[in-house]
Amino acid sequence: xxxxxxxxxxxxxxxxxxxxxxxxxxxLKHFEEFTFRTDDIIIxxxxxxxxxxxxxxxxxxxxxxxxxxxxTLPNWDRMPWLEEHRAMALNLxxxxxxRCFVSHLHYSMMPKSFFKVKPKVIVVMRNPKDVFTxxxxxxxxxxxxxxxxxxxxxLAKFMSGQVMFGSWFEHVKGWLNAEDQDHVMYIxxxxxxxxxxxxxxxxxxxxxxxxxxxxxxxxxxNCTLKNMKxxxxxxxxxVPEELMDRKKSEFLRKGIIGDWKNLFTDAQSEYxxxxxxxxxxxxxLNFVWDL
Length: 291
Ligand code: A3P
Known about the structure:
Sulfotransferase, Sulfotransferase_dom, globular, P-loop_NTPase, EC 2.8.2.-
């Protein structure tokens, strides 16, 4: 694929762009008709907020640290995106409980069954300056996404939601305002960076698993960026070079808090802060922006 425009690479779904490569109309229909179970675990993330990380952590919590699934199944089969075409081929209906999935779609786009069944959801949020930075590098290396252009150009698109999966602001606010929050847990990427073992224990408790200290520590150790980079089932090295150009950027890139400082000028950072302040004025969230 050469670099093409939004119109060529994306389709529109309920007002947001989705990359055509993995989202076909049939799989969105499959998504809309999907039947949840109460004990399903769904990870809801805006892209570049720690999805791949959760695809490593959640299966390890469910298996109580047994490595079989993370060493034999690619992250996208282990914990598929419900809205992607792959979900149709995996026969998810036959998977034993508790099943686990990820989704990048907004709360308001969840299927009917989601609101009826109320499966467990873990919402992972990341400070949006780092989300932007991660996404900018991802758009440079992925041929099925538009070329990001300059930071200013991509910033204008990101702030107005003219990017895949739409607006970060709308995505986060939608999930934060979810009804019936008993089945929803919120965690930030930064919390996970700062104390992964405690984050693993917290998520395990929410999932109804009581893990020993030792098992939580083992899972946290396996799920460091360094160790995940070594696992070919998790580091995206199975994706062909034409789709992801690793000479430009790795998928598992830096995994730190505050890399936006290496990308933004002062003016870009101030512009971001001003928009953030306005769009998030009625939201109580305290992100860690740098260390
Ligand atoms: P960076 O590009 O900032 O490094 P997603 O999986 O939602 O697309 O998010 C990808 C981002 O999560 C990338 O951020 C990636 O490096 C980071 N990430 C993945 N696994 C991680 C881990 N074990 N520890 C820290 N960050 C991780």
